Amino acid sequence: MTRYQNLASILSQRIEQGLYPIGVRLPSIRVLSKEHGVSITTVQQAYRELEDQQLVEARAKSGYFVARRKMRPGLPDCCNTTQCSLTIPQWDRVLDMVNPVQPGETAFRFAAPDITASSLKPLTRSLSHLSQRQYLRTFDDEDIRGSFELREQIARLMIDSGSRMDAGNILITDGCREALSIAIRCVCAPGDVVAVEKPCFHAGLQLLHGLGMNMLEIPTDPVTGISVEALELALEQWPVKAILVTPTGNNPLGYNMPIERRKALLRLAQEHDVAIIEDDAYGELSYPYPRPATITSMDFTGNVLLCSSFSKTLAPGLRVGWIAPGSYMNRAIHMKYVSTGPTASLPQLAIVDFITQGHYLKHVRRMRSQYQHNRDLITRWVTDYFPCGTRISRPQGGFLLWVELDHRIDTQRLNRALSEQNISIAIGAVFSAAGKYDSCLRINFARQPTTELKNAVRQIGVAIHQLLEEK
Amino acid sequence: MTRYQNLASILSQRIEQGLYPIGVRLPSIRVLSKEHGVSITTVQQAYRELEDQQLVEARAKSGYFVARRKMRPGLPDCCNTTQCSLTIPQWDRVLDMVNPVQPGETAFRFAAPDITASSLKPLTRSLSHLSQRQYLRTFDDEDIRGSFELREQIARLMIDSGSRMDAGNILITDGCREALSIAIRCVCAPGDVVAVEKPCFHAGLQLLHGLGMNMLEIPTDPVTGISVEALELALEQWPVKAILVTPTGNNPLGYNMPIERRKALLRLAQEHDVAIIEDDAYGELSYPYPRPATITSMDFTGNVLLCSSFSKTLAPGLRVGWIAPGSYMNRAIHMKYVSTGPTASLPQLAIVDFITQGHYLKHVRRMRSQYQHNRDLITRWVTDYFPCGTRISRPQGGFLLWVELDHRIDTQRLNRALSEQNISIAIGAVFSAAGKYDSCLRINFARQPTTELKNAVRQIGVAIHQLLEEK
């Protein structure tokens, strides 16, 4: 974060907390410059940033004032009853959603990061350089667990999340999807019951379904995450084998589960001898820094399996993920051997270069700040253009916004209407096995904001208004 | 194949067939030159090649004569009773075997192709070139089924195997392993019985085990493949759901199953409504050209699933395979989505370049000829250096030789003895769920022959002799 962004963030927090009420005159540029030990220009930039966010307004010859804002949208209402579902009827809808991007399409539907950042260039260079001599390497030199150097680097990066691991605790996979698939098969057999967040990211639901598991959907709060209380009730009623959670930068809700709730979840799982599968793919994209500790880092039983990847922090096309399977390493290696064999080595080696040359942390820092900035923008755009009464999440990490519309709106119909304007969203229905969330949608806000993007959000708003008028 | 190789092959066939009996004087250089319309030099080169193979010997001023040879080794005795096994205890041994290569090791233990051929260079160039701009592409542009262009090219290549498919019948996977894993899950549920060849390649056995299947091992002839007769008996006794076979360039036996036997196998499977999973990874490395038609190409029911990859023809590090799942496409797409998501696009695009620019067919032709030549050499070396009574396979494709030693030899012990000389082989035990083949081994002969390789084979022979003497 640059100095002006830092200052803007401090001021914006004070406004949010009500320290500077609406209409009040804010400290002068000179006072702030002195108070924070920064230049006049920095304060001016910070105020301009806050103006962009419509938090403050400049009045000629009077200075800056806290702006009168639209009501902040409410939070989505995700919580309702626990239920056990045996099938997922949404596969056709998911398939529809993961179709390739059409020419000219403004696609909000994917959970893909921004891969246009210049800070990724050293990675592209490494890949190109290495592919001249490394690409065709056979498996002969490859450990089924993946590159030792990469596993060492991942263990180092994981110190930030509170974990003390070494290369021997980590297994490289073809993306986080394979890590999850391995994790589930490590702790469950087909027919077993797995508890999931509700809403749960659609690949997770399809994965459980594809592996023959039964899903138990647990009410999940858009700010504090999976309900430990509801889970406790569920564990008493159902023979749950594992709990699949994404506590940091949750997909689709964007929350960071508070540390105390993480601890309570772990305690509950340990009491019932249930495994936790922790999806940490968005972990390093948590806006609060340092990032929250993983549940894995708090566990001493080996019954928490961490799955992650470079797909959200770097690029999904690399297909490099990992699993830290706790006490299940032997099973995990067998699963890896039988599902795809060793992961391609070239991208692994390129990532090692990228990390050891210091580019990785710089890139992730930059993206974190970009995504946080974009979160504020998309929040404003949705507030401005979507109908009053729209509820939205408050992402604390990642680049996904969850939106709950008026209950008369079917977002699948909305998506069809938007397709005429070459815009696409992720429909809410695929985030639950039970076909809930028909009025919800998920929007990707990873890309650098442009007028075109802003207009696309406006067009979504117009389409929603039109659907409402038809009712 | 060059002219002299072609002539050498014709002459060698005549000798094998007994048209030129042992000790007989062969046609003069001049006569052959006229008969085949080739130069004197070509005939001389052909005779030199046959001398190298110890098929002919030159006698000063008299010309060339059919050489007196050592007895040709017998065929391995693979066939014995059908049996149903519920577990595979060999995982530790497999894990041992797939360890990374040690510095200085002469590794015969992998099923890896030769990737040092200069005909692969255009592929490396494409990869490097594409990675400058394509590598980080997100999934947004990617079809879960893989690159359309690549699927079109694969469909074209498959015409040689008798199949008429189009891109819509093919799904790209992370190597053949994922294709097999998807195929099995398309047609079976955990607990089902799958019939396999005996011996069966170890990854296949581990895969079935890992997916919770029960295996039924069917006696397999080292020349004609899986016993259709034994299979028929088995199908009457057991509720078999699928048959997993590698009819072309079989791993580990190297046979090409005769067309009539393929037809009989298909008929049998259709009568019993059992799916066939056809592993064709070595299909294009069949020495006879044109290659044998796949079982898939003879089927009209959609109950034969073809799995293949570029791992044996190009390089395993590419991690690009495919499945043509017959009538199971929808299930296969779901399995692909949940097991790893889309396959990395860069290697797919590089392979498209390599094929469309005409490099692929040239490369495969070259490797086929290299492997056939190496097959003759390794056969001679094993005949020369291994104890009398050793039995070996007669590979008709690929680069793997199956060797059956005196039954007092335990090849795991042999491997330990060889490890002191930094040589490794694949032990026979891992090729059967029932722990048979303790006296067998598999040797890779893909690499260009060198004195070092020849010496390594000699060292294996010496080690076997030593173990026999200890008995």
From TrEMBL, chains A, B:
One of its GO terms (molecular function) is pyridoxal phosphate binding. It comes from Acerihabitans arboris. Keywords: Aminotransferase, DNA-binding, Pyridoxal phosphate, Transcription, Transcription regulation, Transferase. Signal peptide: none annotated. SMART domains: HTH_GNTR. In the C-terminal section; belongs to the class-I pyridoxal-phosphate-dependent aminotransferase family. It comes from the Bacteria. Residues 1-69 form the HTH gntR-type domain. This is Aminotransferase class I/II-fold pyridoxal phosphate-dependent enzyme.
